[in-house]
Amino acid sequence: MAEPATDLTPLEDSAELLAAEEHEVQIVGRSPTYLAWRRLRRNYVALFSLGVFIVIVTACSLAPVYAHHIAHTGPNTIHSSEQVRVNGKLRKVVGGGSFYDAKTNTFVVRGVSILGPTWWHADGRFVLGSDSLGRDVAVRMLYGGLNSLKIGIGSAFICSFLAIVLALIAGYFRGWPDWIISRFFDLIWAFPVLLLAIAIGSALQVNGFHHFGINIEPGSLWIPLLVISYVLIPYIGRPLRGQILSLREKEFIEASVGQGASPLRIMFSDLLPNIASTTLVFFTLIIASNILTEAGLSYLGAGVQPPNPSWGTLIAEGQDHINTAPWLAIIPGLAVVTTVLAMNIFGDGLRDALDPRAKVRVEH
Amino acid sequence: MTSKRRWTWLLGVLAIAAGLSMMVAAYSAAGTKHKTAATKPIGTLRAVIDTIDYLDPQQAYTGQSWWAMWNVYETLLTYRHVDGPGGYKLVPGLAQSLPTVSRNGKVYKFKLRKGLKYSNGAAVKASDFKWAIKRGFLATGQGVGFYTDIAGAEAYSKNPTPQGNIPGIIVNNKKRTIVIKLAKPRGDFLTILALLFAAPVPGNTGPAIQNGSIPGTGPYKFASYDPNRSFVMVRNPYFKATRFIPRGTPNRVEVSLIGDADAATQRVASGQADYSNAAISPDRIADAKSKGHLVLRDTANTYYFWMNIREAPFNKLKVRQAVNMAIDRKQMQTDVWGGLGKATQNVLPPTYPSYKKLSLYPHNLTKAKQLITQAGAKGATVKVWTRNVTDAVRAATDYQGVLNSIGLNASLTILPRATYYTTIGNVNTHAQTGWARWLEDYPHPLDWFDVLLNGNRITDQDNNNFAWYKNKKTDKEIEQLKKQPVLTPAVNAKWATVEKQIMQQAPWAPWSNRVFPEFFTKQIGCIHIQRLYGIDLARLCRK
Fold first, then answer.
1. Number of A:B CB contacts under 8 A?
2. B515 interaction partners in chain A (CB closer than 8 Å)
3. Contact status of B426 with chain A (Cβ, < 8 Å)
4. FRET partner for B388 with CA separation of 20 to 30 A, picked from A115, A237, B178, B494?
């Protein structure tokens, strides 16, 4: 008579025990988060990119401190008629230029010279030079970065939140809610992102938004922030909806339904944790995408409104002086490239760490 | 030979010698002239200009369009092809002579020149002038507002039909006469008739916009038009030069429409084009100067900041005066266009005979701050409006800084170029202050004071009086001066007084009379500028 199966305890032939017997090494169970972190910390390029991004965010956050205590000026303060001491020599912030000679009743035509980067040789003033109105480029760069990051990160939050909620509703309920939400995604998807953003942004910049008890004045940072949030919703919402539709068919969801869990509980306790890693990756990638979109919008005049700086407006302003003062366009351009590159590399690293098989990317 | 005969012989020889000398001199002079004009023809002129609105005489209302169309469409009266102030002088165009004007200034009689033909060979009729005015109303042309003082035009404008009549225009095709009767006298009416809106077009021209396809009577005709890209002008075979309307020197004018000033300038610098009137950016001026001819065009314009006297804090005189004092006009010329402008406090540009320099508001920041405090406007919120064009944004940014420096709390609102003027000209916008400019339509003070600062002409929509300036005294004076048919020195002096009275109320802060750089390759010479229409095609030559 064979011995009853119940005498065998599960541990006796568990993989851990067998492995321990074979290699004399205890295998310890690891959480997915730990595994992801372990993979991520081995990706030095991704970590370096994260470091770069943190440095940029910190520097831009300290813009008011830099402006007040080092440069002693504001982002929009005009110094065109002033002189600054560089290496002990007095130099005009904006010099040269044509002038009308009343005696001869003619114009003397001369080019305008703009103060270039002083590289800390002017007591912290005009470190990155001046623009054509005599404003401190370093101060405007930092404030511009602050605005760009506010819009980039803020719109990533709003966009991700709305996309998750819509995707959960569409994926869980299916049927007509799914149809409506999907058509809404299709509608936005049908327009090129930048064109749609320009159209909405330009319209709102004229009169602002004054409906449903919400009052947003023209020129407010909220306009580009909300416009970008809105136009990018389907780029996160559609892939998440697909993932939720797939998860909805899994046994653990059926089990929850069978146990009488409410739809809200299933959506937020069962489905949401399962799309968390994808959402996190999307979030990082969408920040980069939003910063680029903001730069494009502001460059075209539909985003941040001058004289308030953003990297996009700074590029637009600098473009007029590309021949004689190229730093005015190159410096903000480099800032955009560095930030977006850092976020994209980190986002890719995060994706590889969280789910190496996933094909998460923001495409538009 | 008697003494008398000897003297006669001697005088005869001397006379022959003098005659021969004169003939030789005349021949030499003629030879020189011939050499200048004929041995260096311009051939094809390749021009680059900013984008235009239309190439239809009843529709076009931009300086770019008018520059080209002045050479294609002639009006009853036109302007002389000369440099400087002489370019403002009205001369007969299609009309045989200047008109006779009735004593009350309400009736104008013209007679067309004989044998006039359009570029398609059709004869020009007196009725074509009437059709041109009607066509403007039918197509809601941009310039119809100028012609509503013609008797019956106001009524016609309310229900315009091709068959409808403007009784104030009486034409006789056989006699080639045109009689125009006004409902009320208007001192600037002759200059209004010289506007291209009144250029006769064939009677069978439909009211719909037709860019470049309507035959004209000028020295050129449009050969092709590629919207927003280019157009070509070639000689009009039916054109006959007159004393006042010469032939153009280029056989063909190829015009590229490029909105990007840097790209346009680059075309000339690299030899791909002969001429560009793009606004060269201040830091490219020196480079451009070294690569070609840089000619500064001194046109009648005033750039100003308007202050809406209906809206706080600009409803207080002290605030408006403070703003005028706070602006560093000289510095702004450098900040905004690299110094290519003259600081001004006048409404009228210095090219006008009515101009009398005003210096009411010397730059004084301390005094300006005091005035703001006295007015109780410290910290008042102000929205500065401007349009999305580089120089306008730059000027408004500077202005915003000025307002903040005297204790106001100013922010900037930038509107698209296309909607800017309609938005700030709408009463519901309640725009407080902002950027504006005015380029003359025709050389008469009425084009400035009546359009921009006459309180009687304020409208709720499409208002040009952005300051909403209304003053019984100055309004009355403008209305009285409107009736003066000729700008005599006495009338000009009165205009100068009106200007001073207005500026004492400071509804505007004028700050610049800009000059426009015109850029040519070094091969182009004989560059002459007609004050109203710009580069004169009749006098260009190639070096």
1. 106
2. 107
3. no
4. A115
Question: CB-CB: which of A111, A206, A219 is closest to B286?
Answer: A111
- Taking the CA atoms of residue A321, residue A325, residue A326 and residue A330 in that order, the dihedral angle to the nearest 10 degrees is -100
How large is the greatest C-alpha to C-alpha distance in chain B, in angstroms? 106
| pTM exceeding 0.90 | no
Coil, helix or strand for B241? coil
- The CA distance from A128 to A254, in Å, is 61
- What confidence tier does B29 reach under pLDDT thresholds 50, 70, 90? very low
Calculate ∠ Cα B314-A75-B391, nearest 5°: 60
Under an 8 A CB cutoff, do B414 and A107 touch? no
Peptide bond just before A307 cis, omega within 30 deg: yes
- Structural contact between residues B492 and B446, judged by C-beta atoms closer than 8 angstroms: no
How far lies A171's CA from each of A73, A186, A240, A247, in Å? 52, 15, 8, 9
Mutate to test the interface with B, among A103, A105, A132 (most CBs of B within 10 A): A132
Q: Do A347 and A284 touch, CB atoms closer than 8 A? A: yes
C-alpha distances in angstroms, B381 versus A76, A88, A287, B101, B408? 17, 41, 34, 53, 6
CA distance B237 to B220: 8
Residue B451 CB partners (closer than 8 Å, separation 6+): B438, B457, B464, B465
The ipTM (two decimal places) reads 0.75
The helix or strand, by DSSP H or E, that contains position A215, with its residue range, turns out to be strand A214-216
pLDDT at B32: 39
- CA distance, residue B464 to nearest chain A CA (Å): 19
State the DSSP code for B182.
B
How many CA within 13 A on the CB side of residue B378? 7
How much is the pLDDT for B3?
Answer: 57
Neighbouring C-alpha atoms within 13 Å toward the C-beta of B406: 33
Shortest distance between the Cα of B335 and any Cα of chain A, in A, equals 6
CA gap B151, B133 in Å, rounded: 12
Nearest CA in chain B to A74: B401
Q: What is the rounded distance in angstroms from the CA atom of residue A161 to the CA atom of residue A149?
A: 18
Residues A218, B541: Cα–Cα separation, whole Å: 51
pLDDT at A121 over 50: yes
Q: Where are the alpha helices (DSSP H) in B106-162?
A: 126-138, 153-158
pLDDT grade, residue A53 (50/70/90)?
A: very high
The predicted pLDDT at position A341 comes to 95
Contact A109 B515 (CB under 8 A): no
State how far Cα B330 lies from the chain centre.
25
What is the full DSSP assignment across A236-287?
A: HHHHHHHHHHHHHTSHHHHHHHHTT--HHHIIIIIIHHHHHHHHHHHHHHHH
Does pLDDT of B179 surpass 50?
yes
Question: What is the CA B275 to chain-centroid distance, rounded?
Answer: 20
* Distance in angstroms (rounded) separating the CA atoms of residues B287 and B269: 9
Token readout for B423 is 């938005």
Q: Do B335 and A94 touch (CB under 8 A)?
A: yes
Interval A326-353: pLDDT, tens: 889 999 999 999 999 999 999 889 888 8
Min Cα distance B375 → chain A (Å) is 25
From chain B, the residues in CB contact with A206 under 8 A are: 415-416, 419, 423
B191: closest CA of chain A, how far (Å): 28
pLDDT band for position A236 (cuts 50, 70, 90):
very high
* Tokens 């109320």 found at: B505
* Cα-trace Rg, chain A: 28
Q: Tell which residue, A34, A57, A49, has the closest CA to residue A348.
A: A49
Please provide the average confidence, as pLDDT, over all residues in chain B.
Answer: 90
Query: What pLDDT band is residue A3 in, cutting at 50, 70 and 90?
Result: very low
